[in-house]
Amino acid sequence: MSAALDTEAVAVWLTQHLPGFAGPVQAEKFSGGQSNPTYRLTTPTGSYVLRRKPPGVLLKSAHAVEREFRVQQALAGTDVPVARMLVLCEDADVIGTPFYIMDEVRGRNFDAPALPGLAPPDRHAIIDEMNRVLAAIHDVDLAATGLTDYGPPGNYYRRQIDRWTRQYHATATDDLPEMTALMAWLDAHVPPEDGQRTLVHGDYRLDNLLFAADGPRCLAVLDWELSTIGHPYADLAAVIMQWSMPATPEGRGLRGVDRAALGLWSDAEFIARYCKRRGLPPITDFGFYLAFSYFRMAAILQGVKKRALTGNASDPERGLRLGRHVPEFARAGLAAAKETQ
């Protein structure tokens, strides 16, 4: 099955289902993503964004564009900025996979968390807004937004560890003792529930946010594929995990960066400000949440590698490069686990 977009089929379907739409459609694929292929659609009536499942055989529950559409539609009008959802097509016969259409949000996107080119006060403001939006996601009223059933009940970490262990085994291409040890440690150290059951984004990082051109205001949070109802510290730890990566185009982290000189926040400052925003006490045993984040990222990258090898990746060459980092994430997860012992 080809990943090429059938623009004629898209135009016919949108003419029937999107009021005010008129073709023809020109499509430009956004680069860099490893998950659901995403395209800018240029038409006589304006620009839209189409997001679809990738072609080929997929893992069960993976690439659920239907869930992405639902959660972003539910968040309209809340303190969480999202693009306006327009229409969902669940009929795979139209272009080969389900897809949805949303408004295009034009804003600044930052790949590097060091925010090169900005002045220190502007960097500080961007990270503060990132912190605010994260707290807003976790403070979403699930009942008011109709999202109480967006994730199953029960211990979130138990569920996630079991899920990603299965996914990892389904896509494993090498024998990695570090990953085996990390999965065993997490399996034995799942924390008891503490009463927090919130919306979680699942892939919260700076490059999944769009910011206004003239200031730090976040215009939209992107890529909700891994969102569910769960425990908020998973998102928080994911930010800290990302910052621990090398400060390279591939790593997109802050390792070795003089954060204070650049106006960036320390890990402790980010966590403390988040807790203050949500009225929470200091977090104990943060090493578990960090180890979990490394584990899940390792499992995700293993899936990316597998899709690249089988020809289903959005960007196969980059997918193979990312897949080489799986052992590194597993080792980092084990190091974080030792911090709790």
Automatic annotation (TrEMBL):
Domain Aminoglycoside phosphotransferase per the UniProt entry, residue ranges: 28-252
GO MF term (any one): kinase activity
Keywords from the UniProt entry: Kinase, Transferase
InterPro entries: ACAD10-like, ACAD10_11_N, Aminoglycoside_PTrfase, Kinase-like_dom_sf
Pfam families reported in the protein's UniProt record: APH (PF01636)
Top-level taxon of origin: Bacteria
TM region(s), chain numbering: none
CDD domains linked to this entry: ACAD10_11_N-like
Name of the protein: Predicted kinase, aminoglycoside phosphotransferase (APT) family
Organism: Roseovarius azorensis
